[in-house]
Amino acid sequence: MDDTGKKKIIEHFLSLYGQGRWGDPQNTEPLNALLDMLTDDVEWWMSGLPHPGFVSKDEFRSMLAPLNDITDGPLQIVPTGWTIQGDRVAVEAYSTMKLKSGLRYQNHYHFLFELRGDKIAVYHEHHDTAHVNDVLVNIMGDAEK
Asked: What are phi and psi of 60, to 5 degrees?
């Protein structure tokens, strides 16, 4: 596959984040489509909070469940830079998402993907963990009180 094809796979994967309300049990189609783009043995790693380290597809799905209680719209991820080398695709991006509290979740990312055919075999997500804690984790804790 050429670099254009690899970029299209990752663009589609990132666009799926913006196609639904994460955690909404009535809207699982975008999440299922996103997870279907991953190999069954995907190496999924996330930095810091709320769940540092390696996660499985099922763990990622369960991490999203509480978001429906605090979000007021989908997470939009906007790529700002690309590097493609062999089967590795690195993406710099930022995100935005409205929250029911009136705050906005706006983070910056560096993603590293490795493709195996047309599936993602490695997903590493580096993001601002302090922002996740300040905006999402604290709000989720308040929502549970």
From this structure: -65, -45
Residue 92 in contact with residue 10, Cβ under 8 Å? Answer: no
CA 121, CA 71: separation in Å to the nearest integer? 29
| 76-to-54, 96, 144 alpha-carbon distances in Å | 23, 5, 25
**Which two structure tokens, joined as six digits, stand for 110?**
């560096």
Contact yes or no for 31/22 (Cβ under 8 A):
yes
Q: Return the closest-CA partner of residue 21 out of 87, 91, 71, 77.
A: 71
Where b means 16+ CB within 10 Å and e means fewer, 131-145 reads bbeebbeebeeeeee
36 near 66, Cβ under 8 Å? no
Radius of gyration of the chain (CA): 15
CA 117, CA 115: separation in Å to the nearest integer? 6
pLDDT digits (tens, 9 = 90+) for 12-64: 999 988 876 666 667 778 888 989 999 999 998 988 755 667 888 888 777 77
